[in-house]
Amino acid sequence: MAPRVLVSDELSETAVQIFRDRGVEVDYMPKLGKDKEKLAEIIDQYDGLAIRSATKVTEKLLEKATNLKVVGRAGIGVDNVDIPAASKRGVIVMNTPFGNSITTAEHAIAMMFAIARQLPEASASTHAGKWEKSKFMGVELFNKTLGVIGAGNIGGIVCDRAVGLKMKVVAYDPFLSEERAKQLGVTKVELDELLAKADFITLHVPLTDKTRNILSRENLAKTKKGVRIINCARGGLVDEAALKDALDSGHVAGAALDVFEVEPATENVLFGHPNVVCTPHLGASTTEAQENVALQVAEQISDYLLSGAVQNALNMPSVTAEEAAVMGPWLKLAGHIGAFIGQMTEEPIKAINILYDGAVSGMNLQALNAAVIGGVMKAANPEVNMVSAPVLAKERGIQISTTRQDKSGVFDAFVKVTMITDKRERSVAGTCFSDGKPRFIQIKGINIDAEVGEHMLYTTNEDVPGIIGLLGGTLGKHGVNIANFTLGRSAVGKDAIALLYLDQPIAPAVVAELEATGKFQQVKPLEFDGA
Ligand SMILES: NC(=O)C1=CN([C@@H]2O[C@H](COP(=O)(O)OP(=O)(O)OC[C@H]3O[C@@H](n4cnc5c(N)ncnc54)[C@H](O)[C@@H]3O)[C@@H](O)[C@H]2O)C=CC1
Ligand SMILES: O=C(O)C(=O)COP(=O)(O)O
């Protein structure tokens, strides 16, 4: 069945066309982002959700989104998506990190000109036939100091354009390297220095717990008298009430705001102030940017739903389409090994050590690790997947370690996972043959060769005659067909294991009957989803 995607905010038609061309069913309902009840009612029908900033992907919405696998943000900021809640539910969150950055940077520059020369007010006055030539006295940008808070993609472009305007640019960004600052032609400074020096301040940081209120009342008080402030990043970065007071007192000469604490902003303390220029979150609103982000988000969502390729996800390592094709069997194997271990474990896991040997050690290990951990944790919670598992494992304090090596002899490559609890250590290894089929090759250090099936039975016993007959006879009597039977032992007369691939699940009564023979130390049915 074709995956289904809902577009709940206004996106360029390009997105809808791409979904259709790629064979993804798409419903375009651009008003739904503003109607959370209606959205919550229908969200369970969709595998993917494409949004901009109006749709709020809250924990509550995600609870209803029982089939959702991916949220794609056609834009940059994802503060409208509860990413931890999405991760816990195994939903990938992607954005389009570059599609609208030039456009947004240009909007910030336009806003800077607008407050330097009071363009909107002068325009309104002229339209009104007033010809107030002497009222609108502006300031030049030339030789002024621009303080850029956040010099990432957008901030970096703003720096570049401002240098072109012959401004002096200082940037505050803890993650900006001296080398990059030099390349941009800007001076890296601390926040207090920026506040003290800047004639114009422009914000380009994401809204996080650390950046919220970065221009607080206290910080606004540290700015130069006559400063002008531009916010084309997020409402919530500037204390709006404090900004109004600073504008009223004349300490701040002007402010240009594209974003507001509450959006849509139909009321705001700053509305109506003569020195404030406002736009309704238009930073990304150009034909070019909207084409870029719509195209990118539709391709990314389709790639993920159709091939498992992951690009620009905020809660999952990237997997290219090429990698997804090569790694597919290995990701499956990693999940199966994890599932084997998870189903065999009844006590809390302290650590999981993952060894990658040979060709597989050169693959995307973050993704493979996520698949192993997902498999392990799925035994306790079937809802867990590659996205949610690493988060949950971390929450539970499980130590994950990875080793790469290239020592394999018999196999070109293999994956071996060792799980450690207070009581025991358990390890399972597997490989993929050229047919792409995952196989288990070692359990508890005992070599075997077992194709992975959906329903399996694992037994351990002392190496004595008659075990094959006993297993075959009992299963046969209950009409359980054996597709594949693998045996292994550590040494003659010592520990032996059997792994049976069955055509149907084995009933608890049959397990009990085998246990009652007293011949087995363990009789454990195992299930492998998607095998
Ligand atoms: N008005 C609009 O329509 C649009 C607004 N945006 C907003 O712009 C923001 C920035 O976008 P990009 O430049 O693409 O993001 P980015 O991630 O490339 O850059 C953000 C920069 O902020 C820096 N940063 C993070 N925490 C900081 C802190 N506490 N203090 C100082 N710097 C800090 C980072 O090191 C990074 O360099 C987005 O998060 C989004 O909220 C983005 C697009 C359109
Ligand atoms: O990309 C971003 O972060 C934006 O803020 C753009 O928002 P929008 O898609 O125009 O609602």
TrEMBL record:
<dbReference type="InterPro" id="IPR029009">
    <property type="entry name" value="ASB_dom_sf"/>
</dbReference>
<dbReference type="Pfam" id="PF19304">
    <property type="entry name" value="PGDH_inter"/>
</dbReference>
<comment type="pathway">
    <text>Amino-acid biosynthesis; L-serine biosynthesis; L-serine from 3-phospho-D-glycerate: step 1/3.</text>
</comment>
<dbReference type="InterPro" id="IPR045626">
    <property type="entry name" value="PGDH_ASB_dom"/>
</dbReference>
<dbReference type="InterPro" id="IPR006140">
    <property type="entry name" value="D-isomer_DH_NAD-bd"/>
</dbReference>
<comment type="function">
    <text>Catalyzes the reversible oxidation of 3-phospho-D-glycerate to 3-phosphonooxypyruvate, the first step of the phosphorylated L-serine biosynthesis pathway. Also catalyzes the reversible oxidation of 2-hydroxyglutarate to 2-oxoglutarate.</text>
</comment>
<keyword id="KW-0520">NAD</keyword>
<comment type="similarity">
    <text>Belongs to the D-isomer specific 2-hydroxyacid dehydrogenase family.</text>
</comment>
<dbReference type="InterPro" id="IPR036291">
    <property type="entry name" value="NAD(P)-bd_dom_sf"/>
</dbReference>
<dbReference type="InterPro" id="IPR045865">
    <property type="entry name" value="ACT-like_dom_sf"/>
</dbReference>
<dbReference type="InterPro" id="IPR006236">
    <property type="entry name" value="PGDH"/>
</dbReference>
<protein>
    <recommendedName>
        <fullName>D-3-phosphoglycerate dehydrogenase</fullName>
        <ecNumber>1.1.1.95</ecNumber>
    </recommendedName>
</protein>
<dbReference type="InterPro" id="IPR006139">
    <property type="entry name" value="D-isomer_2_OHA_DH_cat_dom"/>
</dbReference>
<dbReference type="InterPro" id="IPR050857">
    <property type="entry name" value="D-2-hydroxyacid_DH"/>
</dbReference>
<dbReference type="Pfam" id="PF02826">
    <property type="entry name" value="2-Hacid_dh_C"/>
</dbReference>
<feature type="domain" description="ACT">
    <location>
        <begin position="456"/>
        <end position="528"/>
    </location>
</feature>
<dbReference type="InterPro" id="IPR029753">
    <property type="entry name" value="D-isomer_DH_CS"/>
</dbReference>
<keyword id="KW-0560">Oxidoreductase</keyword>
<dbReference type="Pfam" id="PF00389">
    <property type="entry name" value="2-Hacid_dh"/>
</dbReference>
<dbReference type="InterPro" id="IPR002912">
    <property type="entry name" value="ACT_dom"/>
</dbReference>
<keyword id="KW-0028">Amino-acid biosynthesis</keyword>
<dbReference type="GO" id="GO:0004617">
    <property type="term" value="F:phosphoglycerate dehydrogenase activity"/>
</dbReference>
<keyword id="KW-0718">Serine biosynthesis</keyword>
<dbReference type="InterPro" id="IPR029752">
    <property type="entry name" value="D-isomer_DH_CS1"/>
</dbReference>
